[in-house]
Amino acid sequence: ISWIMHDNVSPLINELKLEELIIQGSVGLRLENAKSDTLKKLTIICGWIPKEVLGDILDAELPNLEHLEL
């Protein structure tokens, strides 16, 4: 899991009307400018989470998020 390469996944969150998103791995992961009225559950499975990703989550506009699992 720790070697899965990512990029900014915000377009997935912003454009698709997802209720749940599970991401495996954190290398290169970003959630910059994430906005969704439908996302209720976000799970990130990884060995460590970069501080930039934590900041992205804090800055995200996810008003209906009920469950966050890191």
Characterization of the model:
By secondary structure, the protein is of the alpha/beta class. Helix content is 21%, strand content 19%. It has a three-stranded parallel sheet with strand order 1-2-3, with no helix packed on it. Strand 2, helix 2 (51-59) and strand 3 form a beta-alpha-beta unit. The model has no long low-confidence stretch (mean pLDDT 95).
Keywords:
70 residues; alpha/beta; three-stranded parallel sheet; 2 helices; 21% helix; globular
Describe the global form.
globular
Strand arrangement, largest sheet? 1-2-3
List segments where confidence is low: pLDDT < 50 over at least 5 consecutive residues: none
Strand % is 15-25%
Structural class: alpha/beta
Rg over CA atoms: 11 Å
Terminal CA distance reads: 14 Å
Number of strands: 3
* Tally of separate helices: 2
Topology as a string of helices (H) and strands (E): HEEHE
* Biggest sheet architecture: 3 strands, parallel
| Nearest-integer average pLDDT | 95
Report the helical percentage: 10-25%
How would the blueprint of this fold be written?
Elements: H1 10-15, E1 20-24, E2 41-45, H2 51-59, E3 67-69
Parallel strand pairs: 1-2, 2-3
